Amino acid sequence: MKTRRNIFKRCISLLICIVMFTIPLLSCENKEDEIPQIKLSLWCAKDDIPMVTEMVDSFKKKYSKEANFTITISSQDESTCKDIVLKNIDGAADVYCFASDQFDALYKGNALLKITDEKESIIEENGGKDATVVRCASAGDDLYAYPMTSSNGCFLYYNAEYFSDDDITSLERMLDVAAEKNKKVVVNLSSGWYLYSFFKGAGLNVEMNEDGETNTCNWNSTEGKYKGVDVARAILDISTDSGFLSCDDEKLKTEVKNGNVIAAVNGTWNSSLFKEIWKENYKADKLPTYKIGDDELQMCSFVGYKMAGVSAKTDQPEWAMKLARWITNEENQLKRLKERGEAPTNVNVADSEEMENSQAIAALIKQSEYGYLQKVAESFWQPSYDFGTIMSAGNMDGVDLQELLDIMTEKITAKPKEENIEK
Q1: Where are the beta strands (DSSP E) in 203-341?
Q2: Helix residue ranges, H only, 63-191
Q3: 61 partner at 20 to 30 Å CA-CA among 92, 206, 224, 284?
């Protein structure tokens, strides 16, 4: 009988121990269940994905006690992000990166969430309310985008094994050197972004009107010291030179790696490519001059910024703002500078030692004297691409240059058809 009592007591004791051990576990599970499950999506440039993935990992770690995150990162070209977003705002990523010239269309299309979290700090860290980048990210007194980089401009990369300091001042001289060595100098003529360098250098202009939908453009001008056909002839002479190559970034990477290209007009995002291939001969400087007749004209450039925006349709506005803030903060702008050579908008990073040691950014700053804020309506891109493609191929059909200029300019300045206007 005593043995049974002892066994019973032991069973009760064991049961109590089990209950005492289980209650904390259940309590932990309940606490775990209390942490919200947050799903977010993020669009960025394809080449930035490895770097942005690291940023997102650090974001998850920073806020691990506040939420469990599932964050999907996808590739989306920053230069065409607006088109994808405005076609389906509901399907846009919670956070997406875009070029600053797309801000007006995204804002007017009600695709950007007004920033309310840490707004004043963001403005101050990026130079204050009167800074150009802050004004580019604002509508009135309200902030609608997070400044990310100030490197949306072009300049000259060159291999110093082939070029002297004097050579790089003239595009024609560089082409002569390249031709002698059976090498190439690259400018992507099929992109209006680079084509602008020649026309603006000759005093001809293109810019968006106040309506945000149309452009003013005089690239076909028949008046003034330098006419549109003067620029077109100069471009044609350059494109048919044996030392010249027009290609996009993907082909450029291949041609640089195989040793065919020894200079290129490009941007900071490819600085690591040129550094890796050219090593101690890697150099960067402002754009060279080009010739119209006997005159040397300084090539100009668009300048602009890259930004992160939060979708107005996000289901997680608080966390989407925190994520956009994180990938554009001081720490991660410094990371972009170190890993991708992207110039910062953050004033502290702009004063950093890393900035002083970047040849690409030094060249970008030098070129900024001849740079103009990129602000063109959508109708600019396709006509300039069509014209540039014909020029880069040497105008094989021999179409009258004034005719080509008139066609391009008419399309650039045309009002978009009603069905194509983004609502």
Answers
A1: 206-208, 215-217, 244-245, 261-266, 282-285, 289-292, 295-298, 301-303, 306-310
A2: 81-87, 103-108, 119-125, 132-136, 171-180
A3: 92
For residue 422, the model assigns a pLDDT of 41
Write down the pLDDT at residue 355: 85
Evaluate whether 371 touches 352 at the Cβ level (below 8 Å).
Answer: no
CATH class of 155-303+371-420: alpha beta
DSSP H or E stretch at residue 360: helix 359-367
Position 33 scores a pLDDT of 59
Domain coordinates in residue numbering, the chain: 35-144+306-344, 155-303+371-420
Task: Please say whether the beta carbons of 54 and 332 come within 8 A.
Answer: no
Strands, E assignment, 293-364: 295-298, 301-303, 306-310
Tell me, which fold does domain 35-144+306-344 have in CATH?
A: D-Maltodextrin-Binding Protein; domain 2 (3.40.190)
- C-alpha 49/C-alpha 269 separation (Å) is 13
pTM of the complete model: 0.78
Beta strand 244-245 pairing with 184-186: parallel
